[in-house]
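Justification of resources, computational component.

The compute hours requested in this renewal are based largely on the per-chain cost of generating structure records like the one below. Each record pairs the submitted sequence with a full C-alpha cell output. That output is archived, and it is also reused by downstream analysis tasks.
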Amino acid sequence: MPAKVLVRDLRKTYGSVAAVAGVSFDIEDGEIFGLIGPNGAGKTTTIECVIGLRDPDAGDIQVCGLDLRARPRDVKEKIGAALQAVSLQDQITPREALELYFEASIHELGRRAFAISERLHPEPYRTYVVDRNINYANYCTARCIFCNFKADPPGMNSGRKELPEGQGMLFDFQRDQDVAMWMQNTYIPLDMLFIAGDGRIVNIAENTVPMSTRIVSSARPVRWVLEVIGGTTRKLGIAPGDRVANPNFKPR
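The structure output for this chain reads:
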C-alpha cells in the first residue's frame, strides 16, 4: 500500500536562510509520525508545507496519492490540522474569521456556517472576535452565533472576563443532541440555558464555576445553549419549560 504522505527533497528558504534543505520522508497508513529537532531546525516550516499553509521552493509532496503542489484544494479536503498556536487577528468579525479559516466553496462546515450567518444577520457582523485562545475562539467562530456578545478588548487573549447584562452568546449545534459544556477560559460565572429544537428550555446550569474543566451536561438532547451572566435566570425568573423568543431565534 502506498504511503499516505510522501515527501521528497523538500526545500524552503527565507532570504539567505535555508529553513528546510532536502527533507524526505514517508508516513504510512495508521502511522504516528513525529519530527524532532531544536528550534530553527525547520519542523514547523516542513509541516506547514505538507499541509498547504506554505509554498515550498522545491520538492515533491503527495498526500493520499494527490500531488499537493498541483492539486492543493483537493488535498486540503482530505487533511485536518491542530496547530500548536493559532491567533485570530485583532478586531476581526466572525464572518471574516470564517472567510479566513474556511473555504466555503469547498468545505461543508464552511457552507453551513455561512448559511447560518446570512440567515440570522443579512448585514455583515459588527461584533468583534478578539479572544484569540485557540480552544475557545476558533470553536466559537465555527459553531456559534454571536448575539450582541462583547468579547475581550483588543490585546486581551486570556479568556472571557466580562459579559454585560442583557447580552449573551448562543451556540447552535444544528440538531437536538446531548451537549457538554465547560468553563475553561472563562473568568466569570455564567448561567447556561439548554434549549431544545422547539425553543423550550429543558435544563439550566446556574452560576457555573469560572475556569472549571468540570463538564456541564445538557442532561437531555438540545439544539442550542445560551450563555448569559451568572444570576440572570434567577433574577428574571427563567425556568425549565419556558420558551425562548427572539428575532434571531427561529427553530426549524
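Residues 94-236 form a domain with the Jelly Rolls fold (CATH 2.60.120.1140). The first strand starts at residue 5 and ends at 14.
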